[in-house]
């Protein structure tokens, strides 16, 4: 066609009603399609000038069309990429908000833990003077272990606490008996007497009860947030089936091929999305359970007498009470140890040093959480609760979200929308949520007997995590080894593990644990040098959690 002819055509077409229906038999001009198609980044070569008969169309309703087979395929591919992109983007926003919750909780918790440690150091230095310098390392190690535990390290909290008391006992015992030479073996023997002699009184038991509950809960919460983020990431990447690709193409781009410049009807859009996201919607129940359980755990953190802040601030006091108890009963304890382990050798000449002068200035001053601290905790808790609550419906509201105003026609124009065939009202019913409800989905043919395996696995992950949190909520430490095995089953280690499991430290269920004071010298070799587990800086761990939450 030469230039004047094109001009002439344009002239002839200009006055014609732009919306002349193809059904009228008049072939319309494809200029709109051209600009639309090139706007999507495709080459316009090959686009017909006017509508052609559409027998070649495989997805779109046949009839006059501006789309060639190749255009139909390109648009179909585009619709898939766009749909998958939007599902991922929406998942990323959710991951991002879970990550923000993690950050805010983690920031608070670590600060609290640091404040607790500082308070122990400060008040201990004040109350016990020189003894502090000798024991500073023991305290440091305790807090390091608590931090590692919170971060998900595979260590047994009870054993870590027992280890702490045993080492503290050794230091105090040695300091009180400087006139003797006390070798490692002797001290091991002394440590074995702790269970019966209870030099620290009730303090170890009390500390264990409160701290375990809190640390197990805090750690499980962080794990819950991480697992939730991982599930979102994996599920948001599930590729579109062929059937769904067709349905999405028909929904999004067939109106263009058909020359109908209307958005799809809202219910039509939702039925397509409900069909294509049916497996995802099956996450709903377990997702809701997990978020519910996380909310329970979070809400328990600001209880008046066993809140996170109260418990963390009480650690120094309980330790101090234990120390005072031991110092008060040192003579009896020493005598009994001498009876059980034999009289130690007197140290060489001149080294008979008087007992450490005991400064008993009363218990270490009680450090109560300040009102500002409480307010911050309350904010962390209420933010987390409300954000989690908002996200509980995510999987069943996703189809509607994806059919927002940008995509689908508003309800008001239910007669003026693309219904899959032409411009007009969409009559079929709105489908329910989940795979089983798609049996009569008019838009997507789905085999409801074949659930998506990736998504089933993620549903299992949610279940496992919920159980773990429930256990944590009830104060039970769960076997971390098993827990991380569950998780790695899905192809990802959950937390960076900074050290291999220690011999004999593999977490065991509560009932067959060693008793509070069961002291295992075998372990000592490994555990005494806590400092030698060169643990990567917490920022590294932090980054790895961050990386998990943000993986795409
Ligand atoms: C559409 O995608 C399929 C599968 O990825 C590919 O083989 C085909 O070449 C694509 N077609 C067009 C026209 O881009
Ligand atoms: C808390 O203490 C640890 C170890 O002492 C330190 O690495 C970290 O930076 C501290 N964090 C905050 C927020 O104070």
TrEMBL record:
Pfam families xref list: Glypican
Positions of the UniProt region annotated as Disordered: 345-374, 480-514
Assigned GO CC terms: cell surface; extracellular region; plasma membrane; side of membrane; synapse
Principal localisation: membrane
Membrane topology: Lipid-anchor; GPI-anchor
Intracellular or extracellular location(s): Cell membrane; Secreted, Extracellular space
Signal sequence interval, chain numbering: 1-20
Keywords for the protein's UniProt record, in alphabetical order: Cell membrane, Disulfide bond, Glycoprotein, GPI-anchor, Heparan sulfate, Lipoprotein, Membrane, Proteoglycan, Secreted, Signal
Domain of life: Eukaryota
GO molecular function, one term: fibroblast growth factor binding
InterPro entries in the record: Glypican
Any Gene Ontology biological process: regulation of protein localization to membrane
Keyword Glycoprotein: yes
Biological role stated in the UniProt entry: Cell surface proteoglycan.
Family, similarity comment: Belongs to the glypican family.
Protein name: Glypican-1
Organism: Scleropages formosus
């Amino acid at each position: 066609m030469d230039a004047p002819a094109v001009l002439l055509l344009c002239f002839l077409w200009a006055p014609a009603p732009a919306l002349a229906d193809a059904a009228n038999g008049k072939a319309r001009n494809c200029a709109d399609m051209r600009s639309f198609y090139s706007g999507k980044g495709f080459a316009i070569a090959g686009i017909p000038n006017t509508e052609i008969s559409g027998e070649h169309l495989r997805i779109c309703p046949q009839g006059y069309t501006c789309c060639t087979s190749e255009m139909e395929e390109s648009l179909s591919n585009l619709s898939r990429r766009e749909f998958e992109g939007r599902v991922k983007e929406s998942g990323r926003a959710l991951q991002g908000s879970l990550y923000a919750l993690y950050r805010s909780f983690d920031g608070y918790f670590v600060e609290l833990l640091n404040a607790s440690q500082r308070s122990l150091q400060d008040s201990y230095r004040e109350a016990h003077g020189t003894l502090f310098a000798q024991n500073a390392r023991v305290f440091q190690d305790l807090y390091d272990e608590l931090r590692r535990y919170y971060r998900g390290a595979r260590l047994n909290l009870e054993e870590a606490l027992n280890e702490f008391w045993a080492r503290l006992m050794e230091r105090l015992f040695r300091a009180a008996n400087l006139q003797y030479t006390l070798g490692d073996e002797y001290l091991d023997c002394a440590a074995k007497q702790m269970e019966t002699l209870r030099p620290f009184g009730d303090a170890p038991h009390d500390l264990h009860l409160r701290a375990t509950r809190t640390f197990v809960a805090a750690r499980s919460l962080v794990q819950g947030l991480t697992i939730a983020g991982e599930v979102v990431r994996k599920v948001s990447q599930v590729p579109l089936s062929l059937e769904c690709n067709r349905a999405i193409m028909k929904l999004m781009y067939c109106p263009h091929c058909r020359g109908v410049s209307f958005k799809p009807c809202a219910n039509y859009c939702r039925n397509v999305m409900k069909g294509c996201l049916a497996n995802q919607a099956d996450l709903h129940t377990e997702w809701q359970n997990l978020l519910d359980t996380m909310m329970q755990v979070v809400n328990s953190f600001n209880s008046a007498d066993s809140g996170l802040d109260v418990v963390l601030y009480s650690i120094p006091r309980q330790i101090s009470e234990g120390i005072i108890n031991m110092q008060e009963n040192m003579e009896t304890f020493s005598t009994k140890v001498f009876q059980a382990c034999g009289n130690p050798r007197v140290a060489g000449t001149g080294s008979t040093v008087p007992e450490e002068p005991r400064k008993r200035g009363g218990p270490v001053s009680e450090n109560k959480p300040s009102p500002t601290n409480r307010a911050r905790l309350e904010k962390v808790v209420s933010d987390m609760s409300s954000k989690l609550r908002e996200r509980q419906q995510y999987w069943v509201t996703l189809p509607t979200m994806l059919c927002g105003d940008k995509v689908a026609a508003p309800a008001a124009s239910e007669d003026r929308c693309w219904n899959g065939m032409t411009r007009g009202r969409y009559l079929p019913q709105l489908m329910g949520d989940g795979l089983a409800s798609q049996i009569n989905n008019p838009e997507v043919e789905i085999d409801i007997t074949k659930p998506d395996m990736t998504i089933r696995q993620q549903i299992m992950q949610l279940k496992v995590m919920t159980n773990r949190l429930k256990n944590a909520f009830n104060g039970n430490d769960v076997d971390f080894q098993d827990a991380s095995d569950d998780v790695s089953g899905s192809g990802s280690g959950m937390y960076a593990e900074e050290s291999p499991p220690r011999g004999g430290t593999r977490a065991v269920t509560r009932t067959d644990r060693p008793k509070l004071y069961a002291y295992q010298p075998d372990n000592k070799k490994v555990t005494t040098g806590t400092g030698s587990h060169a643990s990567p800086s917490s920022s590294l761990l932090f980054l790895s959690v961050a990386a998990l939450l943000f993986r795409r």
